[in-house]
Each structure stands twice: as structure tokens, then as C-alpha cells.
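Hi support team,

I'm filing this because I wasn't sure whether my run with guanosine-5'-triphosphate finished correctly. The job status page said complete, but I'd like someone to confirm that the output block is well-formed before I use it downstream. Pasting the exact inputs I used:
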Amino acid sequence: MADEIEDLSGVGETTAKKLTENGYKSIEQIAVAATGKLMEDTGLGEKTARKIISASRESQDMGYATAKEVLEKKDEIRQIKTGSDKLNKLLGGGVETQSITELYSKFGTGKTQLAFQLSVNVQKPKKEGGLGKNALFIDTEGTFRPERVRQMAKAGDMDEDEVLNKIFLGRAYSSDHQMLLAEKASGMIEEKNIGLIIIDSLTGLFRAEYVGRGQLAERQQKLNRHMHTLQRHASTHNTAVLVTNQVMANPGLMFGDPTTPIGGHIVGHASSFRIYLRESKGEKRIARLVDSPCLPDGECVFTITQKGIEDK
Ligand code: GTP
Ligand code: MG
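And here is everything the job wrote out:
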């Protein structure tokens, strides 16, 4: 399946440039465009416009699937255990493939810790709650800590170096870079046997770069596209996607409700599972499942110990 406009059959560099310069930046956008509108916007001839739209539609697999196929795809859903039985139960078993799970909270609550634990656990064999697959970790804040991951691997009786070797790390320095890393992940997912994609943090760079109210619409549009890319990876490759999101701490800095996660409904609607974390006594944390379409809302307590995520 083509991921980039340039990969579409019949699209040369010049045409790709015409498309992107005139606002057609993704294959999805072209696939849903009307021929006349595309011609008007880009100056391309009718024959070319039709050909490109049709190639985009084919590459997006916009056709129908039978109910049986839908069911079979659902049967392929797997879950990654978190380390806490209570949290697994809240999630209906663990962090699911084919979906996006969002962790949101104030700073220092344990989002990154959970992300580390899951990038270790995904590597465990199925009977131990993993997928026997590897992790792709997009770090946007420079908070990835190999020593901490090593500690968790050790606690799980796993070969520490092997665990580190099976986490593929991408450091994003801008929101565009982050989006590019996510878009380019397709090839990696198959080649490196990726079962879990993590974006930690999903929104940090976006928040830092798009500061004014006037930029809000553009930010949301980009986030929306980013979430679509992630969702597409999740469903085409049967991988789990975990994103972290900080709750706005300073109401003076941002617009909107200071207790809501950044990205608002764009991120919320695209995530199937949303977990709100908050601190409790000592090492204890409270996780709340919010607005799940298929599971009851609820809360549980788990612990972050030296070994990682546990019950206790
Ligand atoms: P931001 O990225 O700033 O939004 O925070 P976060 O939600 O990602 O928080 P993070 O996962 O970094 O959690 C940090 C907290 O995890 C610390 O305050 C500790 O409570 C806990 N933690 C981190 N490392 C250890 C450890 O080695 N042992 C124990 N017991 N707790 C740890
Ligand atoms: Mg963090």
C-alpha cells in the first residue's frame, strides 16, 4: 500500500509537488477529492486527475469488506498485559492491538513508566501476556531511559540487552519530524516485527510550537492527520498504539478547560481507550478508564515500584 503521494503509480515528482503545494498532502485527501475540484486546485488535466484519484482510492483500500472479514479481523486482536492485573481488567485484558490507547495525566504521574513497561512486556511470549514482538518508541521529549527499561527487564527475568535491542527508538525534534517518523514507520513495522508503537508524548511538541489561538486550527488539523496515520498502522499491521498526553497544568498558557488533555476531541475521538492517571499515596496511582465505547467506565489502583508496574 502506498503511504506517500510520490509512491502512487503515475505520480511523478512534478505532479506530487503540484499536489502538496496546493494542499493535497496525504493520499486520503486525494482519495476523497472530486475530479473537478482537484483539477481546479492543482491545475492538473482531467485524465491525470482521474488517474491519481483512482490510484489513491485503490491504495487506501476504500472498498467494502464482508462481515465475515470484519469478524476475522476482530479475532486477530491481541492484548499486551500491563504488569498490573487490576489495570488489565479495567482495560478488558490489556492494551489492545488495532486500537489507539491514550494515557493522559499531569506531569510525573507515570505515563512514561507505563510506556516503558509495555515496551518490555510486548516482547514477552503470548502465554506470559506479551505478543512475542518488538516495540517502536517515538520519544519527543528526550525522556527515554534505557537504565530504567533494563531494570524492568531484569525484574521480568528477561535478557536485559536483548530487551533493549528490541526497542527501536526514534527521537523527534519537531512536530513535523514526529509526524514523519510515524508516517515512515510502515516499513519498520513489518521488517522489525513491531507489536507496539509508542508516542511519548503525542502532544508535547505540538503544544510548544502552536502557541496562539490563531494556530489552533492548524494544530488540530495536523494532530488529526497524525492520529489517522497511527490508526492506519494499528489496523493494517495488527499492532497496538500507545500515546501519552499531558493534561494542561497552567490554564494561563493554553485555551480551553485546564483539566482536559491537550488536543481535545481530535485525540479523544481517535483513541479507543483513554486512561486518566492521577497520583495517590506514595507509589500508588489511580487509573480511570474514560468514555470507552465497549467497556464500562471504572477506576483501579496500581503501583509503580522499582520493578515497574505492579499491583500490590
Ligand atoms: P511527564 O512526561 O512529565 O508528563 O510525566 P509522566 O507522566 O511521563 O511521568 P513518569 O512516567 O516520568 O513518572 C515519574 C514517576 O514515576 C516518578 O515521580 C516516580 O514516582 C515514578 N518512578 C520513576 N522511576 C522510578 C523507579 O525507578 N522506582 C519507582 N519506585 N518509581 C519510579
Ligand atoms: Mg513522560
